[in-house]
Every structure is written in C-alpha cells, then in structure tokens.
C-alpha cells in the first residue's frame, strides 16, 4: 500500500512540476498546490482504483494523475475568471501597470526603433507588428508576461482619451518563437492626455480564444479603469515616450499588478517631440 502511495505521489508531483515549468508559472503560487494535491490525488487514485479493478497499480497511479490534472485545471479556470477590486494609487505623474505578470524586458529605444519582443537577441519592429506606420521619438519599451494563474483583466496605465484601438486578428501560436508574434492576435492602443501619450500592445498566446476590449476609440478613461481582457496566457507591452525626470520603478523579473503597481514616475513630457503618433 505504502509503495503504491509513494509511487503515485511521485508520478503526480513530477508531472505537475513539468507542467508548471512548461507553462512558466510562479513556483511561489504553484508549489504549495503541488504539495497539497499530489498526496490527495494519489490516495484517491488508490482508493477508487481498488474498488474498480482491484490491485492494478498502473491504473491506480494513472487515475490519481487524472484526478490531479482535473483539479488543477479547475483551479486555473477559477483563478483566470477572477476579477479583484483594484484601487489605483491616484498619484500624479505615474504610469501604472496595465497587467498582472512579470517584467520580462525594459528597453531604452531611439527614434523609430521599437522592438516588440526580444528572444535570443532577435527583435521585431512595432510598425511591422501592428500593420501601420508608427512614429516614435525615443523612450522606453516594457514587456509584461502574464501566466495562466494571473488576473487577465487589463487596466488603463494612464487616464485620457483612447485615440487608437486597432485589433489585428491572428492564429494562435506560442510566444516563445519570434515568428509567432506576427501570427498571434493582438490589439494596439494609444491613450493620450494633455501631459502624456503612450502606446500599449495586448498579445494573445497560443491557447487564447480572443482579446476582448472594454473600450472603443474616443472613450474617456481614468487611470486604473478596466481596458480589456486577454483569454489565458498572454503578454502586454507598453511604449512610453521619454519624460522629464523619468524614474522606472521596476526591474526585469519584478512581479507587477494591474491597476496598482507603479512602473514609471515622471514630472511631464520632456518635449512635444516625445509623443507617439500614427
């Protein structure tokens, strides 16, 4: 009995850990779940399996693994559809995170040089990615990777008017390969107020169904308002022009929350030439 139980726990926990690594989930959240569900699923597999086919060890271990996967997927769905209340800091001169997730790059870019992603040194220009010519006159480009366990409702990083909202349909591919960035569904937005104009790109992942905007062009929004939702794993990029006394308040590897985490502090635009235009 104990040998079957140990085998079941080992198979379940090993499989879940491989899935966690594949899905790039945060261990701080995922590991406690593995420690909880592995012994529970192994015990249920042995108990239920014994009543169905007797002492078949392989069936009992497989049943325990199936139970663990079903329970884990159920938890992922519950976490995905959650919509926690978020209160923005309401501090003047800030840009807050539009998404929950990990900062994967912070790039200083020059005029008309905006990478949408960096994978093994390869870059894609924003104008090619969104299918229209974008004039950018210097600033920073920040990428935020969202996992399947993150809140997937995106929020406005600044208040202002939605000047541009362009949805580019696509097929579903992994973001691990640079070519897939031109095939995944994405939404390009420009938000503008008297002090600042920024760009935002919401990128779908391979298991995503669609990106659903909550706003339309011409809408007036406040900082922290719900902007849209990306189904399951995804990425959000921010393009912020060069600002006076700009301080980037995050580092690569930091975890940020939409509508709460301040990612940039500033005073005002360094010059009118720093604005993104289409």
Give a description of the structure.
This protein has 278 residues and is an alpha+beta fold. The protein folds into 2 domains: 2-80, no CATH class; 94-274, Glucose Permease (Domain IIA), CATH 2.70.70. Helices cover 28% and strands 29% of the residues. It is built from 4 helices and 16 strands. The strands form 4 sheets. It has an 8-stranded antiparallel sheet with strand order 11-7-8-9-13-5-2-15, with no helix packed on it. Strands 1-16-14 form a 3-stranded antiparallel sheet, with no helix packed on it. The protein has a 3-stranded antiparallel sheet with strand order 6-12-10, with no helix packed on it. A hairpin with a 2-residue loop joins strand 3 and strand 4. The longest helix is centred in the first third of the chain and has 27 residues, at 27-53. The chain is elongated, with a radius of gyration of 22 Å. It starts with a helix and ends in a 13-residue tail after the last strand. The mean pLDDT is 80.
Describe how the helices and strands are arranged.
Blueprint: H1 2-23, H2 27-53, H3 57-80, E1 94-96, E2 101-109, E3 115-119, E4 122-125, H4 126-130, E5 139-146, E6 153-155, E7 160-168, E8 186-192, E9 197-204, E10 211-213, E11 220-221, E12 226-230, E13 234-241, E14 247-248, E15 255-256, E16 262-265
Helix pairs in contact: 1-2, 1-3, 2-3
